[in-house]
Each structure stands twice: as C-alpha cells, then as structure tokens.
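Long-time lurker, first post. I've been practising inverse folding by hand and with some scripts of my own, and I keep getting stuck on stretches where the structure tokens seem ambiguous. Below is the full token string for one chain I'm working on. Before anyone asks, I'm not after the true native sequence, just a reasonable design that respects the backbone. If someone could post their per-position residues I'd love to compare against what I wrote down in my notebook.
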C-alpha cells in the first residue's frame, strides 16, 4: 500500500501500464501515417493513381508534377488541363468528329504536360526580358473576342460547353499565354543581339 491507501500509481499522475499503452498506440498511428503517406506518394507519382483521395492530396498539399529552373508546375493544373482536353474532345465527338481522330488519353496527358512546361519557360523568358502582360492587355483582347463572337453571353456559353471554363479561367489559361508569346516575340525580334544570332544560325543551315 502507498500513502493514502492507493496502490499501483506513481507520482506523475498515471500508471506505467497506461502510459505504455498510450505510447504504443501513438507509435502505431505514426507508423501508419508514414506508411500511408509513402503508399500515397508512390500511387501518385509512380503508379499514376487518380481518384478522389489523390485529388484531395494533390490540391491540399500543392504537389508538383515537374520543376522548370527551380519553379514548380502544380500537379493540380496538369489534372485540370487533362480534364479540359477530355471534355473538349468529348464534345467534338458528340458533334460528329470520328472517334479515331480523337487523341488517346496518353497523348492528351503528354499535350497537357508539354503545354504547362512551355508556359513556364515562356513566363521565365518574359521575366528575363522585362516583358509583362497587363490586365488592360487581357481585357482589350477579350473585348475583341467578344465583339467578334456576337456578345459576352455567346462567349460564356461556348467556354462553358467546350471547356467547362468561365471567362476568368479562359483569360488566365489562354489569353495571358497568347499575349505573352506575342509580346515576347516582338521583344526578341527587336533585340539586335538575338536577331544577329538568329541570322548566323540560319546562314549556318544554308
């Protein structure tokens, strides 16, 4: 018997047996988290898992799919672009496109990946040359598209049908890269060193 008639306890506030059980349980949980995280990582990056669980992990953890000169390309952007291509070609088939003309899923994935890498390279090159696409540039280009297409409602309906996008997504994914490429081309052609180097390269091919 111990003081006050209590047996089997220590002065730290709990029994050694209970502490052992708790520590063991915490160790099991930690091990399960480590194993689960490793399996999920392998599933995403090695085995190509794509389901609700992996989608949540990819988006909540902002997992990358590639890196270009130290800048990460988000896996979520890749998934979104692949889904957009699937939607677009699904609509094309519904409108009469032969199914044999539709790219395979692997080709769509490669196309989406290449587009994201190219877009990041374009962004970095534009930054190196001080090329910038402003909100005013984007809005002016969008206004021209709206005018040519018969109105904003028509554009919005077409974007939703073909791509599942709203106007802001279209501006971000299409107009900004388009304008950046255009401005970058203009900047490069006005760069005397670049133009001279290009001419030397052409002469070397002749």
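-- Answer (accepted) --
I ran through it position by position. Result:
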């Amino acid at each position: 018997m111990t003081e006050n008639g209590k047996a089997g306890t220590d002065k730290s506030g709990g029994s050694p047996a209970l502490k052992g059980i708790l520590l063991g349980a915490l160790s099991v949980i930690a091990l399960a988290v480590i194993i689960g995280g490793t399996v999920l990582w392998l599933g995403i990056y090695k085995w190509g898992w794509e389901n609700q669980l992996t989608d949540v992990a990819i988006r909540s953890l902002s997992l990358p799919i590639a890196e270009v000169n130290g800048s990460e390309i988000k896996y979520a952007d890749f998934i979104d672009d692949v889904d957009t291509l699937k939607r677009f070609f699904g609509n094309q088939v519904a409108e009469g496109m032969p199914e044999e003309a539709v790219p395979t899923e692997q080709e769509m994935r490669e196309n989406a990946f290449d587009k994201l890498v190219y877009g990041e390279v374009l962004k970095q090159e534009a930054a190196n040359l001080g090329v910038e696409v402003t909100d005013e540039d984007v809005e002016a280009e969008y206004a021209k598209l709206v005018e040519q297409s018969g109105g904003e409602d028509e554009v919005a309906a077409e974007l939703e049908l073909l791509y599942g996008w709203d106007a802001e997504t279209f501006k971000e994914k299409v107009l900004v890269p388009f304008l950046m490429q255009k401005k970058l081309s203009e900047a490069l052609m006005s760069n005397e060193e670049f133009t001279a180097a290009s001419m030397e390269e052409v002469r070397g091919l002749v």
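A couple of notes from the structure itself: The helical segments are 16-45, 52-60, 75-94, 105-128, 135-149, 152-163, 167-189, 192-205. Residues 1-11, 201-206 have pLDDT under 50 and may be disordered. Happy to go over any region you disagree with.
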